[in-house]
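Query structure, 116 tokens:
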């Protein structure tokens, strides 16, 4: 289920022109709060919101699942979506460069997806 969820999330991000999409497999890391992260960025708060809404819609339509919790939609500079087994982080580009979440979990196996 986790792999299908990641695949659906990545498709939804691509549909909304999200950039630099990566997934990190955290399942082998002690103390990880989830099984995987999916991370992307966008150049505007409008696009960050559109990506989050697109993910929620596509996952609900294709898998019948909804996020347990969504944070950050108020200002849409960093939206975190918790699907329990998968956490999605949608950053505005400058914030992703600042927080370097990918580097914090550098031990995790990483999959990079082509930007459309």
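Result returned for the query:
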């Amino acid at each position: 289920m986790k792999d299908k969820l990641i695949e659906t999330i990545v498709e939804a991000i691509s549909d909304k022109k999200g950039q630099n999409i990566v997934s990190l497999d955290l399942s082998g890391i002690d103390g990880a709060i989830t099984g995987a992260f999916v991370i992307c960025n966008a150049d505007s708060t409008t696009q960050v919101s559109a990506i989050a809404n697109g993910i929620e819609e596509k996952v609900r339509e294709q898998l019948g699942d909804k996020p347990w919790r969504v944070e950050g939609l108020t200002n849409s500079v960093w939206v975190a979506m918790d699907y329990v087994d998968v956490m999605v982080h949608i950053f505005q580009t400058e914030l992703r460069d600042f927080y370097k979440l990918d580097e914090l979990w550098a031990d995790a196996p990483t999959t990079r997806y082509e930007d459309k």
